[in-house]
Amino acid sequence: MPLHPKRRELDQALAHASSYQEWLGIAQELDTRDGLMDWRSSDASAFCHERLMREHIQQMRSMIEHQDLGGLATLLQESVYRHLGELNNPELYLYARSGTKQIVSEYLDEVEHVMRSLSEQPIPQMSEQQKLALFEQAARIYGCPALMLSGGATFGIYHLGVVKALFEQNLLPKVLVGSSMGAIIAAGMCNRTDEELAEFFKTQVYEIHRDALRWRRPQAMRKQHSAMDEQQLLEHIRVNVGSVTFAEAYAKSGRVLNISVSPTRTHQKPRVLNYLTAPDVLVEYAVLASCAVPLLYPPVTLYARGKDGRKIPYMSTETWIDGSVHGDLPRERLARLHNVNQTIISQANPHIIPFITHRNHRGVRALGKQVLSSVIHVGSAELLDIGRHIFNKTPLSPLLSHAHAIAAQSYLGDINIQFPFQPAAYLKVVTNPTPERLAHYIRLGEQATWPQIAMIRDLTRISRLFPECIAQIKANMATT
Questions:
Q1: Residue 115: inside a domain, yes or no?
Q2: Residue 197 domain-assigned?
Q3: Active-site residue flag, 322
Q4: Active-site hit among 31, 229, 322, 458
Q5: Are residues 206 and 279 in the same domain?
Q6: 37 and 107 share a domain?
Q7: Domain-located, residue 38
Q8: Active-site residue 194, yes or no?
């Protein structure tokens, strides 16, 4: 049955929206036409305990009205951990375009009101020091979100649009992780203050240095054992990122940059470099190493800033390559280092995109694609595992090991934003973008992020509140 002309116009307008507010207005109109706003306004849900949630909302309101702050603190702790798993269910966000059940927003509104009330007012029989310890412990238990930017060669420019969309909605996490092209974007974001980022996205993002890729001549390829010029890439990194250490970038922006690199020696695990594990390492060399995909770029020697300010080798006996070969997205390491509890993954790897485009879709076709991609994923990993054992200690062994590591990985997180599968775009995946294509990739990143904004805002809301509440309690203590 053909679509109604008005519906076609709305679908086209949604696909060509130029801002999140424009996109949201169109999404709400479509949801109204499809009856999904009625679904949002109804409490009934198979994915959360809506009656208990409504009961907790009423109890919180009553306790605030009667100033029962002690009981409120107990209820808050029990209620948040009771509903946490349900609120994290992505199924709640697969129906309506503009958001999930309104009761979820009501509940989170009330939780925020309670947290602010408890942080601002004295709690009977609890000192401010005890309250601070309570909030800090709760923050550690609850955790924080991280934005993880995959590789993608030229496709990775799309990560700029993802970051732009999140930053404009005040949803950019403090913990950023990057690999390959994603490392360049993450490093650039973590070496700018919020004020500088606002100006960057307003006036500078479309004027960035674009010439990252330069092919070697055939004779140089054979001599250097790599296809591309690393010095050209290093220039691109320095112009767009600057030259700072991990510690200096953290001190400037307050954001935690994480870059995964791997030693070239066999049987070595990837290392996550950040201001805790490698504070004096120079970011531009870590980014360069993260881009050092075997055969494309040669291994990289890392450098650090010495006590006298001069550049010195870091682990001079080691050379490093792209850590995503063995672990594109180092979730477990991030959880231990930074207490990450939510992963937002921006995925632009060309070899991954075709197998994950169905993840946000419903229906029989999406299910069929999911089954097929899972079979291919598992089957290719098994075949490569067999191959690397058969050809062990042969010239093929390193290549098969790398291929197996890539095939065996999981490339998805709690919230996934992916570059759209466009077969024609693959012809330009390893070329420097024109100004027009740069703007196109950035807009693709924004458009891919907007449908996820409601979910990201809800799932990260409580963790984003803890720093504000802890700062309020410390301010209270300073004035008493």
A1: yes
A2: yes
A3: yes
A4: 322
A5: yes
A6: yes
A7: yes
A8: no
Q: Judge whether 388 lies within some domain.
A: no
Query: 163 and 100, same structural domain?
Result: no
As a whole number of angstroms, the distance between CA 101 and CA 123 comes to 32
Q: How far apart are CA 299 and CA 288, in angstroms?
A: 9
Residue-by-residue DSSP string for 188-253: HHHTS-HHHHHHIIIIIGGGS------BPPHHHHHHHTSSB-HHHHHHHHHHHH-S-BHHHHHHHH
**Residues 301 and 323 grouped into a single domain:** yes
Distance CA 136, CA 140 (A): 6
- What is the token pair recorded at 170? 């005040």
Q: In a structure prediction context, what are the per-residue pLDDT tens digits for the chain, which is 480 residues long? A: 455 668 889 999 999 999 999 999 999 999 999 999 999 999 988 888 889 999 999 999 999 999 998 899 889 988 988 887 788 888 889 899 999 999 999 999 999 999 999 999 998 888 999 999 999 988 988 889 999 998 888 889 999 999 999 999 999 999 999 999 999 999 999 999 999 999 999 999 999 999 999 999 999 998 888 999 999 999 999 999 999 999 999 999 999 999 989 888 766 678 899 999 999 999 999 999 999 988 899 999 999 999 999 999 999 889 998 876 555 467 788 888 899 988 999 988 876 776 655 455 544 454 444 444 444 444 554 554 565 556 566 655 555 455 445 544 555 778 999 888 777 878 888 899 999 999 999 999 999 999 999 999 999 999 999 999 999 999 999 987
Given 180, 253, 324, 401, which residue is catalytic?
180
Instruction: Note down the domain range covering 229.
Output: 144-356+411-453
CA dihedral 273, 254, 187, 402 (to 10 degrees): 30
CB atoms within 10 A of CB 254: 11
Helical spans, DSSP H, in 16-157: 20-33, 36-41, 50-65, 69-87, 102-120, 128-142
CA angle in degrees (0–180, nearest 5) for 29-32-33: 90
100 and 237 belong to one structural domain: no
Same domain, 205 and 302: yes
Same domain, 110 and 178: no
Per-residue 3-state assignment (H helix, E strand, C coil) for 358-389: CCCCCCHHHHHHHHHHHHHHHHHHHHHHHHHH
Q: Are residues 192 and 93 in the same domain?
A: no
Q: How many domains does the chain have?
A: 2
Q: What span, in angstroms and rounded, lies between the C-alpha atoms of 456 and 449?
A: 10
